[in-house]
Write a structure and sequence with these properties.
Layout (H helix, E strand, L loop, with lengths): L1 H28 L3 H4 L9 H26 L13 H15 L2 H10 L5 H17 L3 H25 L19 H17 L5 H24 L5 H29 L5
Helix pairs in contact: 1-7, 3-10, 5-9, 6-7, 6-8, 7-8, 7-10, 8-9, 8-10, 9-10
């Protein structure tokens, strides 16, 4: 019953989250300077988050093209930018079906649990509780918008496209296939967590932690194709969605912190 309601209102909920985030950002910038400066240390150089913003825009455009193709709004025969995803996906799916064995599928099943919904919700709640305990209101709000928002967008796109899952998966999965929720969710969760840790890490550890988070996100997404519960394009779309949403949230916070620190954009 709950998921049915979410499916019907996911796009509206995602839009409301964006509007709520913009409203929260507005009121954050109007707080007294002492309140804002409590956690106003910049976690990324300006060039880095501007680069992330550009990557997010490109990811969003690529995702829009993929959704257009999946909805059949333009036919590949008459569209130079269209890709015949079903043909590519089926070729990869058949290749995996002929090469997968129990011996190497078992560890993949274990690894994909890093994108399990129950685990990610538990981790999200723990991180949120820690941020609230530290009274880090800006990052707590960003964390909620990032993790809850990507879930809403996943549901909205899945319902709109309505693509069935591949047949013959190694693990039971229900619901629609496009985009991969594991891919988008882990991309946002683990990379947002790495970003939150940046101010507390020594410079030598920042790149390794960020790359480790990226490796987990890419690994979980790849595992969904290996287990034949998603097509390759589902996972690619999930990564693009995760990158675009994460970039929006992080860049909004970094911009707000830049304003608080008195720097000019």
């Amino acid at each position: 019953m709950l998921w049915t309601w979410i499916d019907a209102h996911a796009a509206t909920g995602g839009l409301c989250l964006v509007l709520a985030a913009l409203g929260g950002l507005f009121f954050y910038l109007r707080l007294p300077a002492t309140a804002r400066l409590r956690h106003a240390g910049l976690s990324m150089p300006r060039a880095a988050w501007l680069g992330l913003a550009a990557a997010g825009v490109l990811a969003l455009l690529a995702l829009a093209v993929m959704v257009r193709d999946m909805l059949g709004l333009a036919q590949p025969a008459g569209c130079a930018t269209c890709t015949d995803w079903p043909v590519l996906d089926e070729a990869l799916h058949l290749w995996l079906a002929g090469h997968a064995t129990d011996a190497w599928v078992r560890p993949v099943v274990a690894f994909t649990q890093l994108g399990n919904v129950a685990w990610m919700v538990s981790l999200s709640a723990a991180v949120l509780a820690l941020l609230l305990w530290r009274r880090d209101w800006l990052h707590a709000a960003a964390w909620v918008v990032a993790t809850a928002g990507v879930g809403l967008w996943i549901r909205a796109i899945k319902t709109s496209v309505g693509r069935p899952r591949p047949v013959g998966g190694w693990v039971p999965e229900g619901g629609f296939s496009f985009p991969s929720g594991h891919s988008a969710g882990t991309f946002v969760l683990y990379l947002m967590l790495a970003w939150l840790l940046l101010p507390y890490l020594r410079p030598a550890w920042r790149w390794p932690v960020g790359l480790a988070a990226l490796a987990v996100a890419l690994g979980v997404g790849t595992s969904r194709v290996v287990l034949r519960v998603h097509y390759g394009s589902d996972v690619l779309a999930g990564w693009l969605l995760g990158l675009a949403w994460m970039a929006l949230v992080i860049c909004a916070v970094e911009w707000a912190q830049t304003r608080v620190a008195g720097r000019r954009c």
